[in-house]
UniProtKB/TrEMBL annotation:
PANTHER family: INTEGRAL MEMBRANE TRANSPORT PROTEIN, SLR0610 PROTEIN-RELATED. Keywords: Membrane, Transmembrane, Transmembrane helix. This is ABC transporter permease. The chain crosses the membrane at residues 24-49, 55-74, 114-134, 146-172, 200-223, 229-247. InterPro entries: ABC-2_transporter-like. It holds the Pfam family ABC2_membrane_6.
């Protein structure tokens, strides 16, 4: 029932946004330009030096693509979780509390939009990188379904991180700076091999904010054949544990929320 209701709410939200076609097309074009320029800078550096600490351009391209698609799925399916602060500051969360649906479900389906640019470019990066890696014999066709699994678990992990950060807003109210660290900065860092960073930062990206499990850890197994299948199974386990903890934290925060009308 909840899944059916969620899909109906998402459909209604998307339909309302598609009424403004020019704004939609313009936002897609701008997002495409930003994403392309960011990756081109990295690609140009790697084409000049060949590799970074043993990681080739196509391996980094793979990491980048997985992170891009996982993030786009999370932001598509749970758009306003990232924008909870505005609901807390304006008091608009009270309106969601009065709806006959769970608050989180209502929040996730507000202002939904499909991030076509990010998903499309992520797919292009994965297709290019995987074709080259297959030609080199580094991976086989079995990597395709395993990559799909990585993307799904990655989206769950990013959602869990975003939800836990949003839930902190029930105590802090202003969480933009916290989101800059736990979501934006950490996800940008995880687009590249974690071996580029000092040990303390690697630990933070694997334990405190586990974005390293979105792409880096499973990639060690898939592209570099390190650690065995346990690397992938462990990633699935991390995804579900992170989701469970985030949901518990959300429910705790929501129980302590003081409505503006009280």
């Amino acid at each position: 029932m909840s899944v059916k209701l969620y899909l109906l709410l998402i459909k209604a939200s998307l339909r309302s946004r598609m009424q403004y076609k020019f704004n939609f097309l313009f936002s897609v074009a701008m997002a495409s330009c930003i994403q392309v320029s960011e990756f081109l800078m990295v690609a140009l550096v790697m084409m000049r030096f060949g590799n970074i600490k043993g990681w080739t351009l196509y391996e980094v391209c793979y990491l980048y693509g997985v992170m891009m698609i996982s993030k786009a799925i999370y932001r598509t399916l749970a758009s306003d979780v990232h924008h909870l602060e505005k609901y807390l500051v304006s008091g608009d969360l009270d309106a969601l509390l009065t709806r006959p649906v769970p608050v989180l479900l209502a929040l996730m389906t507000q202002n939904s939009r499909v991030l076509f640019a990010e998903i499309g470019q992520g797919i292009v990066l994965l297709v290019i990188s995987m074709r080259v890696l297959m030609a080199k014999g580094q991976i086989e066709w079995s990597a395709v379904p395993l990559t799909a699994l990585m993307i799904c678990t990655g989206a769950v992990i990013l959602f869990a991180i975003g939800l836990a950060t949003a839930a902190a807003g029930f105590w802090l109210t202003r969480i933009e700076s916290l989101q800059n660290m736990t979501e934006d900065a950490s996800q940008t860092a995880a687009r590249y091999p974690l071996t580029l960073y000092p040990k303390w930062l690697q630990g933070a990206l694997l334990v405190l904010v586990p974005v390293g499990f979105v792409n880096y850890i499973p990639t060690l197994y898939l592209l570099r054949h390190e650690g065995g299948i346990g690397m992938l199974l462990g990633t699935v386990g991390v995804a579900w544990v992170a989701l469970w903890l985030a949901m518990r934290f959300w429910k705790l925060g929501l129980s302590r929320y003081q409505s503006t009308g009280s």
